[in-house]
Specification:
With 553 residues, the protein is α/β, with parallel strands linked by helices. Helices cover 57% and strands 18% of the residues.
Length: 553
C-alpha cells in the first residue's frame, strides 16, 4: 500500500505531501491544476525515464519519495531478499534528478538501478492510465486473467518446471546429435591416425633413446680405437705405464725407511698403479663390447625416420607428445561409441518431460475452459452496468498446437459493441473508452484471485457520465474493500464513493504558480462535488445531489 508520497521541485509543484487512505482515494481538481503532474511524479518512483525539463528551480534537484507498507506481500519480501535489500516495516522508494540530468534511485536508502526500480514497482503499483488500455488486448494479459480466475498458479509452476527441463533437454539433445554428426564426419580420419600411431607401437621417450643409441653405434669404430690405444699404453706397450709405476714404487720402497716422506710417496705410487690397472681392465671390457652392427643401425634408423615423420605430421617434437595425441584420438573414438548411449538417455529425458508437460497443459487448459462461461457472463453483466448495454465479450480458449511457456492454449478476448454477432479481437475493434471500462471490469473480477498491488486509475472514466459513472464508482468501491485504489477523476459520481477525497489546485506564490493539494473534509467534499456537477457556483439542487453522493454510503 502507498501510504504517502512526497514531491519536491517537480514541474509546477514546489513541494507537497499526500497521505493516502488504505481504501478508495479520489483525486479531483480543475483541468490543468496539476493532477497529471502528480501522476508523472509518481511515475518517477515507478521507474519511468526522467526529464530535466520538469525541474522548477534549476538550482535544486527534484526529489520524489514514495512510502509503502508491503511487508505482508510475499513477492515483495522475496524480491528484496534476492536483491540483498533490507526488509523493513516501511519501504521507501526515492528518485532524485539533478539539474544536470543525472538520475539516481534508492530503495530503503540503498542505491539501485532503474531496472530494479521497474521490477519492484511492478509488485507494488498497477498504474492504469487513459491510454494504457491496450494491455487488455494482449494475449499474455488475457492468459493471466484466465489463470487467475482458474487458480492455476500451482499447476503453472509445476508445468513451467517440466517445460523448462524439456527445453533444456531438447537443447542438449540437439547438441549431442550435432556432436555425433561431427564425430562421424571425423571418425574415419581419426581411426586412421590412431591406427597409424597404434601400429607404430611407440614407447615413452623411445625416439630420444634411439637417437642416443644411433650416435653411439655410428661412432663405435672411433671409440673402440681410442679405448684400445689407452689400454695398450697402460698395459701392453714397450714400456707399459702400469709396469713403470710398479718399478718406481719398488725403487722408492728401497729407501722408505730412511725418510718419513718416502713411505707416503711409495703408498701413493702403489695406489696410482692399482687404479690405472683397474682402469685398463674396464677399458678392455668396454672395447670388447664395441662392435658396429650395420643391421642394427639400419633398423634403428628406419624406426627413427618413421617416428620423425609422425612428429612432423602431427606438429610435435617428442615421443611423449605423439603418445598424448594417440590417447586423445582413442578418447575421440571411444566417445563415438559412448555418444549413442548419451543420446538415448537424453531422448528419454526429452520424452519424459514433454509427456509430463503435455499432461499438465491439458489440465491447465481444462481449468481455463471451465472459466470461459462464468467470465463471459460476469463481464457482460458488468459492461451493461458501466453503460455499455449492447456490448458483449466472448472468450475463446483453443489448442495452439504446441507447448509454450504458459501451456498449449491460444486465448483471445473477442468483442461485439452493438449486438451484431460479429465478434472480433478486442484489440482491433474496441475504442479507448470501451477498453477502459472493460479493463476496469476485468480487474474487478480478478482482484480477489490475485495479489494485486495498489491500483491507480488515471482518468479512465473519460467519455462516461450519469449512471455509467455511478456504476464505475461502485465497482471501484467494491475493489477498494480488499486493496488500495487511487483514482484521478472528473466524475462526481466516482468522487462521491471515495473514502478519501483530495483536491488539486493552483495557487500564486510570488511571480510563480504552484500546485497544491489538500484532503477535503465532508463539507468541503460536498462543495467540490457540487461544483463538479453544476459549475463554480452550484445550485442548491447540485449541493443536495452532492450531499447524497457523499453520504449515500
Amino acid at each position: 500500500m502507498l501510504h504517502k508520497i512526497h514531491i519536491q521541485n517537480y514541474a509546477i509543484i514546489d513541494e507537497l505531501e499526500i497521505a493516502f487512505s488504505q481504501k478508495l482515494n479520489a483525486i479531483t481538481g480543475e483541468t490543468g491544476a496539476g493532477k497529471s503532474i502528480i501522476v508523472g511524479a509518481l511515475g518517477l518512483i515507478l521507474g519511468q525515464r526522467a526529464d530535466t525539463s520538469v525541474l522548477v528551480d534549476k538550482d535544486k534537484k527534484c526529489i520524489v519519495e514514495g512510502f509503502f507498507t508491503a511487508k505482508t506481500k510475499t513477492a515483495v519480501t522475496t524480491w528484496l531478499q534476492q536483491n540483498d535489500l533490507d526488509v523493513e516495516e516501511e519501504l521507501v522508494i526515492r528518485r532524485e534528478i539533478s539539474a544536470a540530468g543525472k538520475s539516481r534511485a534508492f530503495i530503503n536508502d540503498t542505491p539501485v538501478t532503474l531496472q530494479q526500480l521497474n521490477n519492484l514497482s511492478a509488485l507494488l503499483v498497477d498504474m492504469h492510465q487513459q491510454f494504457d488500455t491496450l494491455e487488455i488486448g494482449e494475449s499474455d494479459f488475457q492468459q493471466q486473467v484466465m489463470d487467475a480466475l482458474a487458480d492455476n498458479a500451482a499447476l503453472l509452476k509445476e508445468y513451467s518446471n517440466y517445460y523448462r527441463q524439456w527445453g533444456q533437454a531438447k537443447k542438449e539433445l540437439e547438441e549431442l546429435l550435432e556432436q555425433k554428426a561431427q564425430f562421424e564426419k571425423e571418425a574415419d580420419y581419426n581411426r586412421f591416425q590412431y591406427q597409424e600411431l597404434e601400429d607404430a607401437g611407440l614407447k615413452e621417450n623411445e625416439l630420444e633413446n634411439i637417437d642416443e643409441e644411433l650416435q653411439l653405434l655410428n661412432n663405435a669404430g672411433d671409440i673402440k680405437a681410442a679405448v684400445e690405444k689407452v689400454y695398450y699404453v697402460l698395459e701392453e706397450g714397450e714400456e707399459p705405464i702400469v709396469q713403470q709405476l710398479k718399478s718406481l714404487q719398488a725403487l722408492v720402497g728401497n729407501y722408505a725407511a730412511l725418510h718419513p716422506g718416502l713411505a707416503g710417496l711409495q703408498k701413493r705410487l702403489l695406489e696410482a698403479q692399482i687404479e690405472l690397472k683397474d682402469i685398463a681392465g674396464e677399458i678392455n671390457g668396454i672395447s670388447n663390447h664395441f662392435q658396429f652392427d650395420p643391421a642394427k643401425a639400419d633398423e634403428l634408423n628406419n624406426r627413427l625416420s618413421m617416428g620423425y615423420k609422425l612428429q612432423k605430421k602431427h606438429g610435435v617434437g617428442s615421443t611423449n607428445e605423439l603418445l598424448q595425441i594417440q590417447q586423445q584420438l582413442e578418447q575421440k573414438l571411444q566417445a563415438v561409441l559412448n555418444i549413442d548411449t548419451a543420446i538415448d538417455e537424453k531422448q528419454k529425458a526429452v520424452n519424459d518431460n514433454v509427456q509430463h508437460a503435455t499432461a499438465l497443459a491439458a489440465e491447465i487448459s481444462a481449468s481455463r475452459q471451465a472459466q470461459v462461461k462464468p467470465l463471459q457472463d460476469n463481464i457482460n453483466k458488468l459492461l451493461k452496468q458501466v453503460g455499455m448495454p449492447n456490448a458483449r465479450m466472448q472468450v475463446t480458449v483453443s489448442p495452439s498446437g504446441q507447448l509454450t511457456a504458459n501451456g498449449s492454449d491460444a486465448i483471445e478476448f473477442l468483442f461485439d459493441a452493438n449486438k451484431s454477432d460479429r465478434f472480433l479481437p478486442l484489440r482491433k475493434v474496441a475504442s479507448g473508452g470501451e477498453l477502459s471500462r472493460i479493463m476496469l471490469s476485468v480487474k474487478s473480477l480478478v482482484a480477489q484471485h490475485m495479489d494485486l498491488p495498489t491500483l491507480i486509475f488515471d482518468e479512465i472514466d473519460t467519455g462516461i457520465s450519469g449512471e455509467a459513472a455511478l456504476q464505475v464508482g461502485l465497482i471501484m468501491k467494491k475493489l477498494a474493500r480488499d486493496m488500495q485504489v487511487i483514482c484521478i477523476t472528473h466524475q462526481p459520481q466516482i468522487a462521491g464513493k471515495a473514502n478519501a477525497h483530495y483536491f488539486v489546485y493552483k495557487q500564486p506564490v510570488g511571480n510563480k504558480v504552484n500546485t497544491g493539494i489538500k484532503q477535503l473534509q465532508n463539507s468541503e467534499r460536498v462543495t467540490a462535488i457540487a461544483q463538479m456537477i453544476g459549475g463554480e457556483k452550484p445550485s442548491a439542487a447540485a449541493l443536495e445531489n452532492a450531499r447524497e453522493m457523499v453520504e449515500g454510503d
